[in-house]
């Protein structure tokens, strides 16, 4: 089961890195945060995304990205909190459900992880 959790985390990182150059319509600050995230400069990414969300508390994408930085930094509780906040802002944010599932797996909460994966799948199938 641990191997499967690692596989999910790796898949999401690969997908993120593949699509992140296509951050169209995002502020320069958000793009800077994505660059820090890609460079694995997680503290700087968190700082940038926090600035973005302070200026725009409804920016689900910036909150989601901050959750990613926190996840890769190993702060699963805060990552889950960010993914949850992004989902509250945008209940159809399937990728946030996917990443929150990965964090749930990291905490050993397989039941919650499976529920989030099912929700993400349902959103994609709509």
Question: Can you tell me about this structure?
Answer:
With 126 residues, the protein is mainly alpha-helical. The chain is 79% helix and 0% strand. It has helices spanning 2-19, 28-38, 42-55, 60-73, 76-89, 94-106, 110-125. The longest helix is centred in the first third of the chain and has 18 residues, at 2-19. The protein is globular, with a radius of gyration of 14 Å. Mean pLDDT is 87; it is low at 21-25.
Biggest sheet overview? none
Query: Helices and strands, in N-to-C order?
Result: HHHHHHH
Name the shape in a single word.
Answer: globular
Work out the strand percent.
under 5%
How would you classify the helix and strand content by structural class? Answer: mainly alpha
Number of E strands? 0
| Helical content class | over 70%
> Which regions are unreliable across 5 or more consecutive residues at pLDDT < 50?
21-25
The number of helical segments is 7
Average residue-wise pLDDT: 87
CA gyration radius, whole angstroms? 14 Å
What gap, in angstroms, lies between the N and C termini? 29 Å
């Amino acid at each position: 089961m641990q191997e499967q959790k690692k596989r999910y985390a790796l898949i999401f990182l690969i997908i993120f890195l593949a699509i992140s150059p296509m951050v169209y319509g995002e502020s320069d600050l958000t793009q800077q945060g994505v660059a820090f995230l890609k460079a694995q400069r997680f503290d700087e990414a968190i700082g940038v995304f926090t600035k973005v969300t302070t200026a725009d508390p409804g920016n689900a994408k910036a909150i989601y990205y901050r959750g990613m930085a926190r996840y890769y930094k190993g702060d699963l509780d805060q990552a889950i909190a960010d993914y949850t906040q992004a989902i509250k802002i945008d209940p159809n944010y399937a990728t946030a459900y996917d990443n929150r599932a990965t964090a749930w797996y990291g905490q050993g909460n397989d039941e919650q992880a499976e529920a989030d994966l099912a929700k993400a799948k349902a959103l994609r199938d709509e």
